[in-house]
Amino acid sequence: MMPQPLGPAVDTTPSDRPGPVTLTGRYAQVEKLDPKRHAEGLWRVLKDDDRVWAYLPYGPFKDRATFEDWLDERAVSLDPYFYAVVDRATGAPVGQFALMEIRPAMRVIEVGNVLYSPALQRTPAATEAQYLLARYALDTLAYRRYEWKCNALNAPSRRAAERFGFTFEGIFRQHMIVKGANRDTAWYAMIDEDWPAIRAAFETWLNPENFDADGQQRVSLADLMKKRATP
Question: How many CB atoms lie within 10 A of CB 57?
């Protein structure tokens, strides 16, 4: 009798869970969300733009007190495990995201709850924060699959996933009900064997030599990601 086909054997040692680390880059710093240090700054950069909440299951908030109550809950959550993004040039918090759907035994984890203020969007710090968190999940915590999921109608998030090196894997139809509306979810992921080339593309893009005197990129991250995928 022919044996049933099985996948290759893998290391079954569970990955570590996320912790209260500080990840420091050239433009951004990622640190454990702490309302005492981050609430005032985050409220300042988020309160005037309701669009940043459009595809999230919470927000916008009517006042600072309500926002701070919500942030207090996020800060003690273990899954999702929230981090603040701090602009190193100013020392101000400008966004947040989380590691979530944490499955150490399967060595699978997701980046989600991405909330970038207008002050962070389309900056080197925004990209570097994603690089720092991916490096932490894949290199330090030893996850073998790193996921990105978003509303299938969220075109900016889908472009970002591809720009950051994630591979599109399909649409989960009628996956959620969010704020009273249907959500089809687009699934993306990178796996551990993808990561070395993705990491190199990030590091090439983040190198100061990739920016001219006006701070304009010489080579786009999207182009670098395409090149790493070319045989």
Answer: 11
Name the region of 101 (left: φ>0; alpha: ψ -120 to 50; beta: rest): left
Q: What would the DSSP string read from start to end of 167-185?
A: EEEEEEEEEEEETTEEEEE
d(CA 61, CA 37): 19
Q: Which of 189, 113, 137, 110 is nearest to 23 (CA)?
A: 137
Continuous segment of H or E residues that includes residue 95: strand 92-103
* φ/ψ (deg, to 5) at 144: -105, -10
| Cα end-to-end distance, the chain, whole Å | 39
pLDDT tens sequence across 144-203: 999 999 999 999 999 999 999 999 999 999 999 999 999 999 999 999 999 999 999 999
Query: CA 159, CA 169: separation in Å to the nearest integer?
Result: 14
Q: What is the pLDDT of residues 39-93, one digit of tens each?
A: 999 999 999 999 999 999 999 999 999 999 999 999 999 999 999 999 999 999 9
Chain Cα centroid distance, residue 199:
14
**118: three-class secondary structure by DSSP:** coil
